Amino acid sequence: MVITSVVSGSGTLDSASIKSTLFEAMSRHPRLMRRVSTFNTFYILEDCKVDMDDHIIIEQDRLSQHKFLTILNTLKSQNLDFSKPLWKFHIFTNVAGKWKFVAQISHCHVDGASAVRLLSDITNYTNCEQKSLVTPPLQTRPTSNGNKHQFSFSRSLKMLFAVSYHFIRAIVCARDCTQRLRKIVVGRQKCYWGQLGTISDIKSIATKCNGRLNSLLFSCLSDTIQSITKERCCDDSVKFYVATNMRGYEDNIVLGNNTGLLLLELYSEHNLKLRVKQFDLKLKESKSSCEMVSYHIMMSIIGASPDFFEKFGITIMDKKATLNVTTVDGGDTDLYFFNQKVEDLIGFVPHLGSTGIGVSFIGVGGKMVVGFTCDEGLGLDPADLFNAFLSSFEQHKVVV
């Protein structure tokens, strides 16, 4: 899965210095200088020769906005070359009088949050005379917050039994009706991005709804996904589990700091204030939920010998539908790319779950941008999903 980002701005870029400086910035992260290969369904990184010209391409022809969007859609549908590190930068120096920077980075190298940090380091480069970029080490997992729980034998015993229960139930339970939502995905993604409002305003609305920013966003997301399930299944009982990266907006995550994952069930509650409050509690509980622990235990066991388990028809993603979510805070400060102010940031294509649907909440310049992605095989329009999300958000505003 390729994470795609586009930033743009006005002004003139120094094409002569961009290429070498960008490559030097990427070279400071050894992980990004290695190619990705697979072994027993696991991704591993191997040393390889890296040529700057294969990864950084500068287009100096004058292009119209329509022509650029056509090229962008073509790039998004192309697979990166697995014989090389899975990242590529395309720099368009003149698109209707503006410059465009398109970044493509495989999810195998970094997750969405790490990609944001990486590109933020690059776009904030403001001294073209400087020969090198000093960037912090790339983190592909969030660091532990250092919080320690006091040991309790009864609590540990309870956790052991609960994890065992969820683990066994996940293996033996019958397939639920989420199967009816699934279609064969074709690998081509359709995306739609829209602006929701300022982060400060959204936080204010969330507070009045007895929640926080994330709990409000998830409440709106619940309405959005329920509209799909009602259309496809005519059944309100469909369970969606959200595999989500909460770094950036939430407080410190205990177990999530080691896994980068939370499991959260989307559910329907007509009282919006009550729903936001319940989501707030659910988010806190999900950080150390037994089901999340059992999920990772099961993934580890099945991942160690997938062929053996598949003979028995055991594949973890067939037991529930998952929707992937990324939340990243863009901050309130302006971004710069080689002394030129970044005027627009489209954001990142989110990682798709087993349903072929993904959503990203990304802060850009103090504003919240929401992006939906759907696999073309689903027959869904991501713009319709955004409009459903926006409609739910407007209802929450009216409530407060």
What's a concise summary of this model?
Helices cover 38% and strands 24% of the residues. It contains twelve helices and 15 strands.
Description:
Helix content is 38%, strand content 24%. Mean pLDDT is 70; it is low at 125-151, 170-182, 247-260 and 315-319. It folds into two domains: 2-126, Chloramphenicol Acetyltransferase, CATH 3.30.559; 155-399, Nonribosomal peptide synthetase, condensation domain (Chloramphenicol Acetyltransferase). A hairpin with a 2-residue loop joins strand 14 and strand 15 (367-375). Helix 7 crosses helix 9. It is globular. It has helices at 15-27, 52-55, 65-77, 112-123, 153-172, 199-208, 213-233, 256-259, 272-286, 290-304, 306-310, 382-399; strands at residues 2-10, 34-39, 42-47, 56-59, 87-95, 98-106, 189-198, 240-245, 262-266, 321-328, 336-337, 340-341, 344-345, 357-364, 367-375. It has a six-stranded mixed beta sheet, sandwiched between helices. Strands 4-5-6-1-13 form a five-stranded mixed beta sheet, with helices on both faces. The protein has 400 residues and is an alpha+beta fold.
What percent of residues are in strands? 15-25%
CATH architecture of the largest domain: 2-Layer Sandwich
- Profile the largest sheet: 6 strands, mixed
What average pLDDT do the residues reach? 70
Computed CA radius of gyration, to the nearest angstrom: 22 Å
Main sheet: strand order: 7-15-14-10-8-9
Structural class: alpha+beta
At the fold tier of CATH, the topology name of the largest domain is: Chloramphenicol Acetyltransferase
Tell me the helix content.
25-40%
Order of helices and strands: EHEEHEHEEHHEHHEHEHHHEEEEEEH
Full CATH superfamily name of the largest domain:
Nonribosomal peptide synthetase, condensation domain
**Separation of the first and last Cα atoms:** 39 Å
Question: How would you sum up the global shape?
Answer: globular
CATH top level of the largest domain? Alpha Beta
Number of helices: 12
Family: In the N-terminal section; belongs to the long-chain O-acyltransferase family.
Keywords: Acyltransferase, Transferase
Pfam family, one: WS_DGAT_C
Catalytic activity: an acyl-CoA + a 1,2-diacyl-sn-glycerol = a triacyl-sn-glycerol + CoA; a long chain fatty alcohol + a fatty acyl-CoA = a long-chain alcohol wax ester + CoA
